[in-house]
């Protein structure tokens, strides 16, 4: 299978005037996308950045993120995502762990770069995006696009890498090493309108993209979460490789009104979001606009895809009340996309946390046995179809997460599930945040969904706290709708209508709002610290 850059160059040659990237209400064509990226690629070459060198992207969503990534691919370098929330210690760790030779950074993050750049010996090129005053030693992004001729095209390999740094719940962030060929295996759905599989050559990929354009079946996706995270990052690679367009929001805090206005402006066909953190404000905005007699235009939208966290059946049902859509609840992780899915459309009943296993996914017990459907046993999801090389510079963790069982290499990130007799799985949660109370394993996500189904609960995180008798107890940190008053006993009683009594929280701590990452995923370290502080008080 081919390299992303080679596919994208072919698509730009074939459909140069088609939209490729949009940010807010602005749009770049495929021709502009390729030309600007080629000029950045020339700047990388001039700085000595080439094959297998790491290029860190310490950026917010925007044209520059995708162009810098394309430029790195062009020169066979390895783009590395960097969480823009990282402060100097975290930033220093990642840049040195990656052996980053170049870093692209937003001008509002320049102070953090200044604090670490002299301690990152491999850094050769600092590229600042935006701002009037340059950080000492940096060059401005706009100068690179203006003063460099496009880099000549080169031969590349599908084995070239894309790094996805994942923070997890404990320890330092780890880079998942993804060869281009592995990520492309997961894009079959985008070629389904043509009745073909994933193309294995550049020529076939370009031909498929052209045919999708001719049939009017090109995907125009809104990457709702930051591109630095897996959900938006991976779907963007796939959509571009099919000749589609990727749109991001201009606001740096989520604005549901902007989202729906951008959907209508660019006639977007697909949304990529992350569960309830996105769904709730999106639905509230639809309700507000409809009540005001100014409903948003959803006519172009065909699909909403969510990945990374639980997506409630209540939110799915509310979306379907507005328009006939395909709702794709995708089960996956940074180490293992495409583990399973739940499709909701038409008369299909929406559910929470239940998925059809992917063709290459099984559930394996901790002692290495395949879980028998209907047995009630718990195991970890294991994917043998799309597997990365491992974690960069971490052989021990690579061996743990990507073991070989009976001659087959699996990706087992740690998500626990049970398998029903009909082959459907019920997702329980990540083992690293599992609570052990009196010998019973309790998965936070299951308890959270039970509590969040209460109409007055806005959001919730569940964590374990030490207990002399039980080892750990279940504790909920939650926020309520403003102005509502609900006693703890009523919340627990409601949860008991969904889960066993032993799983319900022993204590409930109320906060104004729940801290989540920019991608909507729970920040369990924050929740743990908050629960400990409130319990102590």
Arithmetic mean pLDDT: 92
Low-confidence stretches: none
Give me the side-by-side strand order of the main sheet. Answer: 2-1-11-10-12-13-14-15-16-23-22-18-17
Biggest beta sheet attributes? 13 strands, mixed
**Structural class, from secondary structure content?**
alpha/beta
Total helical elements: 17
Radius of gyration: 23 Å
Amount of helix: 25-40%
Approximate shape: globular
Task: Give an overview in words.
- By secondary structure, the protein is an alpha/beta fold.
- It has three domains: 249 residues, Rossmann fold, CATH 3.40.50; 79 residues, Luciferase, Domain 3 (Luciferase, domain 3), CATH 2.30.38; 104 residues, ANL, C-terminal domain (GMP Synthetase, Chain A, domain 3).
- The protein is 33% helix and 25% strand.
- Strands 2-1-11-10-12-13-14-15-16-23-22-18-17 form a 13-stranded mixed sheet, sandwiched between helices.
- The mean pLDDT is 92.
In short:
It is built from 17 helices and 28 strands.
How are the SSEs ordered, and which strands pair?
Blueprint: H1 4-14, E1 19-23, E2 26-29, H2 30-46, E3 54-58, H3 63-74, E4 78-81, H4 88-97, E5 100-106, H5 110-116, E6 125-129, E7 139-140, H6 141-147, E8 161-166, E9 174-179, H7 180-184, H8 188-191, H9 202-215, E10 220-223, H10 230-241, E11 245-248, H11 256-266, E12 270-273, H12 275-291, E13 303-307, H13 313-322, E14 326-331, E15 340-344, E16 354-357, E17 361-364, E18 378-383, E19 390-391, H14 395-401, E20 404-405, E21 408-409, E22 415-419, E23 424-430, E24 435-437, E25 440-442, H15 444-452, E26 457-467, E27 471-480, H16 488-496, E28 507-510, H17 524-536
Helix pairs in contact: 1-2, 1-3, 1-9, 2-3, 2-6, 4-5, 11-12, 12-13
């Amino acid at each position: 299978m081919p390299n992303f850059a080679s596919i994208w160059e072919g698509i730009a040659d074939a459909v140069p005037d088609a939209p490729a990237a949009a940010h807010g209400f602005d749009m770049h064509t495929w021709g502009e996308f390729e030309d600007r990226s080629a000029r950045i690629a020339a700047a990388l070459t001039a700085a000595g950045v080439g094959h297998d060198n790491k290029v860190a992207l310490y950026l917010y969503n925007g044209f520059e993120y995708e162009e810098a990534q394309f430029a790195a691919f062009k020169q066979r370098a390895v783009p590395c995502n960097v969480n823009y929330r990282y402060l100097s210690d975290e930033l220093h760790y990642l840049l040195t762990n990656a052996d980053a030779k170049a870093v692209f950074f937003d001008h509002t993050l320049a102070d953090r770069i200044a604090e670490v750049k002299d301690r990152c010996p491999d850094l050769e090129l600092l590229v600042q995006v935006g701002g009037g005053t340059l950080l000492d030693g940096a060059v401005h992004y706009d100068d690179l696009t203006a003063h460099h001729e496009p880099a000549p095209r080169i031969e590349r390999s599908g084995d070239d890498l894309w790094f996805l740094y994942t923070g997890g719940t404990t320890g330092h962030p780890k880079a998942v090493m993804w060869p281009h060929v592995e990520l492309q295996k997961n894009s079959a759905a985008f070629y389904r309108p043509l009745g073909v599989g994933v193309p294995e050559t550049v020529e076939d990929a370009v031909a498929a993209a052209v045919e999708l354009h001719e049939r009017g079946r090109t995907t125009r996706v809104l990457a709702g979460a930051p591109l630095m995270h897996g959900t938006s990052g991976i779907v963007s690679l796939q959509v571009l490789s099919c000749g589609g367009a990727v749109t991001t929001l201009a606001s740096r805090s989520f604005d549901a009104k902007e989202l729906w206005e951008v959907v209508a402006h660019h006639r977007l066909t697909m949304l990529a979001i992350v569960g309830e953190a996105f769904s709730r404000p999106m639905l509230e905005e639809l309700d507000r606009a409809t009540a005001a007699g100014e409903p948003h235009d959803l006519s172009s939208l065909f699909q909403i895809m969510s990945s990374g966290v639980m997506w409630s059946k209540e939110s799915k049902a509310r979306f379907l009340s507005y328009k006939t859509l395909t709702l794709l609840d995708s089960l996956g992780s940074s180490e293992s996309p495409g583990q399973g899915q739940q499709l909701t459309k038409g008369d299909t009943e929406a559910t929470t946390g239940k998925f059809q296993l992917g063709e290459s996914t099984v559930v394996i017990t901790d002692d290495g046995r395949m879980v028998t459907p209907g047995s009630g046993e718990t195991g970890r999801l294991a994917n043998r179809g799309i597997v990365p090389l491992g974690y960069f510079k971490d052989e021990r963790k690579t061996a743990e997460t990507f073991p070989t069982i009976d001659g087959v290499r699996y990706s087992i990130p740690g998500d626990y599930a049970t398998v029903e007799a009909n082959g459907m799985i019920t997702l329980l949660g990540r083992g690293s945040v599992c609570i052990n109370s009196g010998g019973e394993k309790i998965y936070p996500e299951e308890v959270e969904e039970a509590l969040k189904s209460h109409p007055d609960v806005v959001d919730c995180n569940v964590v374990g706290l030490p207990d002399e008798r039980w080892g750990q107890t279940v504790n909920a940190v939650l926020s309520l709708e403003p102005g509502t008053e609900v006693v703890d006993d009523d919340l627990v009683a409601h949860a008991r209508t969904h889960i066993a009594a032993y799983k319900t929280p022993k204590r409930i701590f109320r906060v104004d709002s729940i801290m989540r990452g920019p991608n909507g995923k729970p920040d369990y370290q924050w929740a743990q610290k908050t629960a400990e502080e409130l319990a102590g008080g």
